[in-house]
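Database export, one record per block. Field names are fixed; values are copied verbatim from the stored entry.
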Amino acid sequence: MTSFSGSYRADEVQILLKQLPLQPFVSVEEKEALIQSRQKHYSEMLSPESLPSARYLRIFEDACAANLRQMARDCLVLAGLIAERRNGDITLVSLARAGTPVGVILKRLLSGMFGRQVSHYSVSIIRDRGIDEAALRFILDSGHAPDTIVFVDGWTGKGVISRELARCIGKYNLEHGTRIDPGLYVLADLAGTAACASSSADYLIPSSILNATVSGLISRSILNDAIGAGDFHGCVYYEQFAPYDRSRQFADAVVKAALKIGRDGVPLPTAQDRQASADVSRACMARLLAAHAIDDPNMVKPGIGEATRVLLRRVPRLLILRDADAADVLHLKLLAQEKHVPVVIDPTLPYQAVSLIRSALDG
């Protein structure tokens, strides 16, 4: 098993995913039907990934102009919190793929601002399937002590991945006698389930609105028959997208902004009330499930990051916005317009956006 760096620099990340040949793509509609009928798990299939349109790229650039400084500040705060909580060397383990850009940025800040020795790996974790244990063993066998590991992602939505991480790392620790911290470190913790976060605000993290071209040109992780016993989980490397890649450029811009902020001193973290965030999340989910007659919580995706994923790679039923004129939701309105998804405005929404996935029973 070998690692690679995607389109990042070799010293920025080791991506522990098995590179697979281009998969037979499944249409978004067919994938949705197979997932909802439980004939296949979402991790077994890939839908075609296309390059963003010129119009959508302009929205990404606008998002960077508006929110890159906020993301840079939050990355700097998170790096400071990690430095406080870990002595000695640090082993960042980002969750592919939304966590990968964050991990790349944190590695450089922990090294450049805090003088720490940092390694960075990116691994797969899949809902209901757990973390890639082959990747975890690779990290430990490479000489990294269990207590140096810090799991990193971009944000929490409902907290599904942070709970999955806690479950599978708890199981791994029991089975192997290790004491790996299962806590998740994120920029924005909407669900109140992260161990550590810079913020609980639902703001537009710019990297959330592009796919492979801001995440090292890798696909979402894959776990199907192509993955043998002992293999890393898989991915497709979209080498054909290289002329349009923003991965390094974006990470460089965030690091530059963070270092500029850091010259005046590392910002102090704002106290996060995890219980309050968890209460808001539960109440919002209960209201949405009841209001839209939904039985499966997996069909509701709260927060800008999760709402964006639905519009990019699922079959959306409805987009709910708190404020249709907010700059952070411009890309969502564009995607909804392109895909003919109805949009409703709910000023009482605790998040800027929520996407509902269309049920296969809706026709």
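Remark 1: The CA atoms of residues 285 and 297 lie 8 Å apart.
Remark 2: The chain has two domains: 14-262, 274-362.
End of record.
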